[in-house]
Design brief:
35% of the residues lie in helices and 24% in strands. By secondary structure, it is of the alpha/beta class. The strands form five sheets. The chain has an eight-stranded antiparallel β-sheet with strand order 3-2-4-1-10-9-11-15, covered by helices on one side. A seven-stranded antiparallel β-sheet has the order 5-6-7-8-12-13-14. The chain has a five-stranded parallel β-sheet with strand order 19-18-20-21-22, with helices on both faces. Helix 14 runs parallel beside helix 18. The structure holds fructose -6-phosphate.
Amino acid sequence: MCGIVGYVGKKCCADVLVDALSKLEYRGYDSAGIAVFTENGIEIAKSKGRLADLSEKMKNEGKPDGNVGIGHTRWATHGEPSDVNSHPHRGGEKVTIVHNGIIENYKKLKEMLIAKGRVFVSETDTEVVAQLLDLYYEGDPVAAIARAMQDVTGSFALGILFADHPGKIYAVRRESPLIVGVGEDERFIASDVPAILKYTAKYYLLEHEEIALLDENGVSFCDMQGNTITKELLTADWDMDAAEKQGYEHFMLKEIHEQPESIKRTVMPRIENGLPDLHECGITPESLRNFRSIYIVACGTAMHAGMVGKYVIEKIARVPVIVDIASEFRYREPLIGEGDLIIIISQSGETADSLAAMRLAKKLGATTLAVVNAKGSSIAREADMLIYTHAGPEIAVASTKAYMVQISVMYLLGFELALAKGKIDEAECRRLTALLLETPDYIAQILERKDEIEAMAKHLLDAQSLLYIGRGLDYALSMEGSLKLKEISYIHSEAYAAGELKHGTISLIYKGMPVIAVDTQKALHEKTVSNIKEVKARGAVTFLVCGESYQPDADIADYCFRVPEIDDLLMPMLAVVPLQLIAYHASVQRGNDVDKPRNLAKSVTVE
Ligand code: F6R
């Protein structure tokens, strides 16, 4: 979704803004712009397209010259991607803003403003806020912001320039994230930490309904009544390298390769004496034992990690787990209450539906546990209990390393719960925990064989559509494999429980249709093989991902990738890697923008 940056310092503001925005490209955008205080007042440069288009435009038409300004990458919601709809937007002569989020009542506000004689140039909800601020502005920026916020509903973060307060940036947020960075002689606002990492690791987290003021003297914060707020200065533990490609062709490939380290960082600190220990996250065996039922609620890939969690927890802890899509959960009057545990999984910690689902669960009296990657994000801050995953910044839109650490946490939770419930003994828990710690080495071995997968992916390029099939944990994995492929290669695919095919879907199989079968679960092997034979007999070209001890006949697999074998329960940790790489190579080979697939945004802060 949209990205906001702002700069107050001594450097060429336009250059810093464009550079900082480039670190937010992963959020997804279709236009970009900046506004800078210059000798001639606030000058705006904006353009549809990529940051390169904006830079080109500034090269041809002149770059706003100054040291203080705001910038924006827009992911279109209200109005098509176009120069005029791009941010920043002016509200009359005095106010210029950039905005992330959605103004839900913009139509009503726009009508009111038009009735007062205001003229609009864009189709955006943002321009409505700019005009509203201008309407209420009588020389006191904080008073105008506070007054305008009373009228506005929705979630948003704003960076604001007032023409008669040169050198100053105001910022405010409701729900949508915003940080205020503090470097040597320079200050920043940004939607996310990677935007400022090159300049500083120190930042403040702007809270809900707080206003920030940045100028050459420093930064200050107040509430809507103008009362000063003292805030804690935080230090980002992500270094610059984490937000750079470091020689990899794409962030996605880099992040796939970072998985072994991400697992170690996430799992190792949560192991004590060979057993999972999550007490620092607020989780104890006693607390786990007492929950009546468990829900896992998330979106997309994070929801697929929840599916793995369901199979793992149900299998070894024998507790029923319901996995739900956050956007469904929140609107279907879920049957939850006191005594239920709701696990929310989210990389960004800002996904609007997941956040709303968590708030609903809290309101209904359930206990919430967040599994989140982004430090200090809304979901992380509002949950009753919190397990941070330590994947580091995930820049590619397609989630890989975040998924990997999310499922690692599902294992830790499953093991601890199973032990707490007496479903496994300490020796078995130790054995499983030790195996989890071995997975990074196995993954590293698989990554060394990426050429084999690249060759396999070549055979998918012309497919109109394909299927992923599997049973049990392999089905959960198939869902993730299928999502990865479609989101970045744009090849249509569906995941099916292998045993369900003959209830309808098998009619789709045509001669030459690729079917990717995941077959890592020994207990289900015979059944899965039968299903593979069924599609093969109908002309499918089969790609098998299986354990290394299985030597499939030609009537089962046209192509095969065998992964090292550990306990069946942990096989998703290994088998997901070839699926990620198949998607990656298919996308590269089709010439797509791998890290920024069309229409998608990294952090989905609108419903
Ligand atoms: C797909 C992907 C998305 C996210 C989903 C939830 O590769 O990344 O499906 O998993 O948008 O995002 P988070 O985890 O930030 O809540």
